[in-house]
């Protein structure tokens, strides 16, 4: 299955970030109701969001929001927050869906290939930033840490599936935790509920279509030059499961005991002989190069002989993105085209 990268007018259509493999992801997120003061009388209303084992307290809906990756920028735009966005980051790592590009043109670009430095981020004057993983807040890399942002009065939200303790066990359903939390924290509950309803409908449609299919064995790989990596845990693993496939690599394998991806040699993949291969790509050129590598290297692999090579956008496997749902639908259609 070939996909134009990316073109998501919405989730209803049937529907690794460059495995620069970030070992980061915890506790989920949630929202508590406005609290009263110690006297029991109504105090100032505040929203408390539980995120990655900590609490984010908001006294008012944020008005200067930054998406620290294209996946989060997309989510914020689809929540209707264009007029409240103070910046977007890592813009060169993945293009926004075509229907959002014009809308994002005037949003200040804070960085292209990596998260913005602490100085650049703070200079943009945000009061709320959203990121796919904890990596975007690594002070050792020169980025603003969560603690530094809090000291500056900036709330930092990490996608549930990207929390440090959850990167290995994240699921597609973590997106719904994020939508609920962001909807209330940013005052866009109705928009968040609409996206949730649409996403759940897509997943339910996939469930119905693949329910009677004989499951195919699947390996999810990432190819960079001649380096071959396999995915065996995290949201990426769950995407294959939700699409009706059986992962040939998984958390039970020693290679994935501590990290969701691992470099493998071609012999390891050949031994598993999956019936289908799913691979994440960053551009049409990357897709072409990956297909060429797989067909040349594994001519006898069942997946290659039967032309079951399914490409998905690398941006769709970031934690906390609507693309997780798209990826499920695209993989399912690639595995079982007769059901779509």
TrEMBL record:
Residues 64-339 form the Fe/B12 periplasmic-binding domain. Belongs to the bacterial solute-binding protein 8 family. SUPFAM superfamilies: Helical backbone' metal receptor. Signal peptide: none annotated. It comes from the Bacteria. This is ABC transporter substrate-binding protein. Pfam families: Peripla_BP_2.
């Amino acid at each position: 299955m070939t996909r134009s990268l990316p073109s998501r007018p919405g989730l209803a259509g049937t529907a690794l970030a460059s495995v620069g493999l970030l070992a980061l992801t915890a506790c989920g997120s949630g929202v508590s109701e406005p609290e009263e003061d110690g006297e029991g009388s109504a105090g100032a209303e505040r929203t408390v969001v539980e995120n990655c084992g900590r609490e984010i307290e908001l006294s008012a809906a944020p008005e200067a929001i930054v998406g620290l990756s294209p996946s989060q920028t997309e989510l914020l735009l689809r929540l209707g927050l264009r007029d409240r966005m103070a910046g977007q980051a890592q813009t060169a790592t993945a293009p926004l869906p075509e229907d959002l590009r014009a809308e994002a043109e005037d949003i200040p670009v804070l960085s292209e290939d990596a998260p913005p430095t602490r100085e650049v981020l703070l200079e943009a004057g945000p009061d709320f930033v959203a990121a796919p993983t904890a990596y975007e807040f690594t002070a050792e890399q020169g980025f603003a840490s969560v603690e530094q942002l809090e000291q500056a009065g900036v709330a930092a939200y990490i996608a549930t599936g990207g929390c440090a303790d959850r990167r290995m066990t994240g699921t597609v359903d973590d997106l719904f935790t994020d939508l609920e939390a962001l909807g209330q924290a940013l005052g866009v509950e109705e928009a968040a509920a609409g996206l949730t309803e649409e996403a759940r409908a897509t997943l339910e449609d996939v469930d119905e279509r693949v329910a009677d299919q004989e499951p195919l064995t699947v390996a999810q790989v990432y190819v960079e030059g001649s380096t071959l990596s396999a995915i065996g845990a995290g949201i990426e693993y769950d995407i294959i499961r939700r699409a009706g496939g059986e992962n040939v690599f998984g958390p039970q394998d020693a290679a994935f005991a501590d990290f969701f991806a691992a470099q493998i040699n071609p012999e390891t993949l050949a031994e598993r002989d999956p019936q289908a291969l799913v691979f994440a790509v960053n551009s049409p050129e990357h897709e072409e190069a990956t297909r060429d590598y797989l067909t040349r290297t594994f001519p006898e692999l069942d997946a290659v002989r039967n032309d079951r090579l399914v490409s998905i956008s690398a941006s769709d496997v970031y934690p906390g993105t609507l693309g997780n749902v798209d990826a499920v639908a695209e993989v399912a259609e690639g595995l079982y085209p007769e059901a779509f």
